Amino acid sequence: MKRRKNQSKQIFMSLFVMLLLIGNDGRTQLLENLNHLSTFKTKTYYSVGAKDQAEKMATRCDSVLSFYNSRINFEPKVTLLVLSPADWSKYTDFPVYGMPHYNDHQTLIVASEDNDFWKSFIPPLDQLPAELSAKILKTYSNKNGVLSMRDFFDLLAIHELGHAFHGQGGLTMQRKWMGELFANILLHTYVAEMEPGLLPALTVFPEMVVSSTNRSDLKFQSLNDLEVNYDLIGQQYPKNYGWYQCRWHMAAGNIYDQGGIPAFQNLWRELKNQKEIVQDAEFEILLSKKVHPSVAIVQQEWMK
Description:
It contains twelve helices and five strands. It is globular and about 55 Å long. The chain has a single domain (2-300), classed as Neutral Protease, domain 2 (Orthogonal Bundle). The chain is α/β, with parallel strands linked by helices. Helix 10 crosses helix 11. It starts with a helix and ends with a helix. It has helices at residues 2-21, 51-72, 85-91, 116-119, 130-140, 150-168, 176-194, 199-211, 223-236, 238-273, 280-291, 293-300, and strands spanning 35-37, 43-46, 79-83, 101-102, 107-111. It has a five-stranded mixed sheet with strand order 1-2-3-5-4.
């Protein structure tokens, strides 16, 4: 069971990195072949039988866009596809059903149904510390008492929206790690402000990954390691990349707790205004003085 858990995490992190390292040109299909929701600001199309999930995800996308538009005066263009397993391969070349991703710069694709990919991350609770096992059971049990990671993966769609914000907003992210941290800050800030009941679903999964990772097993640990070896880590060391990604999730929570919404607003402003790439020391000062000290701490204390 432990081996199965590790394999599942490796597959997840490998797929997550694939979304960042390679484009997905997709298979051109007429959206008119899908059902369309006409009552939402986010253009939303869905498979037969997926109307409820489509309305849920469209409502959330509209809410995220509205929440941030009122705070940073920007709104990216997004088309949402909520797809069944049967339709997945018709609209994306991404091989595994269930991972939120972009098919192009504006088309966000999510799964309409629970699936084997999500289920593969349900850990063997008897092999985890009792406190963490209880937390997982409480957080990820659905209304029928069955463990499901749906809530976590549904929330990852907001992380992907974060990439649409900085990609379409003309931000200079300065560092690869900042691009991911930015998306996680956007995700955590929205959930904390608008859907706080889902904070456990967002935070327990990263805690599970970080707490079960032995750092002595990681080939790469520093932020500079990531910048220099980004493609290599993603392609050959997915578990290592997963440790980075989950630590960014946890850092985003700390940034929100200390800096609130202004921390994100300041980060948006400074990444938009600072067009030239700066050195580490200057970047640290910029983050600490013009954004929030909790953001600078990610760079300052990463190796502690």
